[in-house]
Write a structure and sequence with these properties.
Number of domains: 2
Strand order of the largest sheet: 4-5-3-6
Helix content: 25-40%
Number of helices: 5
Strand content: 25-35%
Structural class: alpha+beta
Radius of gyration: 42 Å
C-alpha cells in the first residue's frame, strides 16, 4: 500500500508528492521526512523510496548512538549469609543399630571423637531395656553450630557417613537443663 504525503504537511518545503510505503518503510522520523522532501527538491525525482531514504540520510547529521541500557535487577541482591557461630552445647547422644549389637570398633571411634571434640563428656556401652541390644549412650559439652552438625561429625568419625549399616542411627538432642535433663543429671 502506498500513501501519498504532500510537502505542505512539512513546513518550509515546496509542495511535491512524496511516496511513503507502509510496512518496513514506516519507521522514519519527522526529521527524516523533512530531509526526504529537501532531498527530492535538490536531487530531482528518485527512482524508488530506498534511493530517496539514502539521499536523505546523507544530508542528516550523524547522531551519536545512545549508550546501551544497563540491566538492573528488580529484586535486590540478598546480603551474604553469615555462618552461624559455634557455641558450647550440652548434648545427649545415642548411637545404635536396630536388631544388632554395636561393635567395639565403633565404640573406640566414638571415644576418639569425644576426646578430640568435647570439653566434658562421658560415653558408655549399655544394653537397652526393651530389646537388650548393645548401643552407645553418652553426654557431651562441645563447641558446635547445631545438633545437625554434631550428628554429621559423629557419623563421619565412626565411618557411617558413606556406608551406614542397615538400621544404624545416631540421635543427638540438646539438654534442656531442667530436672535430670542436665549434664550431671544424665550421668546419674
Amino acid at each position: 500500500m502506498i500513501k501519498i504525503l504532500y510537502a505542505d504537511k512539512l513546513p518550509m518545503y515546496p509542495k511535491e508528492k512524496l511516496s511513503r510505503c507502509s510496512g518496513a518503510e514506516n519507521n522514519l522520523s519527522s526529521a527524516e521526512w523533512r530531509f526526504m522532501a529537501y532531498a527530492t527538491a535538490v536531487s530531482g525525482t528518485p527512482k524508488n523510496i530506498r534511493e530517496l531514504k539514502r539521499a536523505a540520510r546523507k544530508l542528516l547529521p550523524k547522531q551519536p548512538e545512545p549508550p546501551p541500557l544497563k540491566k538492573t535487577s528488580k529484586v535486590p541482591a540478598k546480603p551474604a549469609r553469615k555462618k552461624p557461630e559455634a557455641k558450647l552445647q550440652q548434648v545427649s547422644i545415642t548411637v545404635g543399630i536396630v536388631g544388632e549389637d554395636i561393635s567395639q570398633a565403633t565404640f573406640a571411634d566414638m571415644k576418639r571423637f569425644m576426646e578430640s571434640r568435647a570439653t566434658v563428656g562421658l560415653i558408655a556401652l549399655e544394653r537397652g531395656d526393651a530389646t537388650l541390644q548393645l548401643h552407645i549412650q553418652g553426654v557431651m559439652a562441645l563447641l558446635s553450630t547445631s545438633t545437625k552438625a554434631v550428628k554429621q561429625d559423629i557419623m563421619q568419625a565412626i565411618g557411617w557417613n558413606s556406608n551406614c549399616p542397615l538400621g544404624g542411627a545416631v540421635c543427638v538432642k540438646v539438654l534442656t537443663n531442667k530436672g535430670i535433663h542436665t549434664l550431671v543429671g544424665m550421668v546419674g
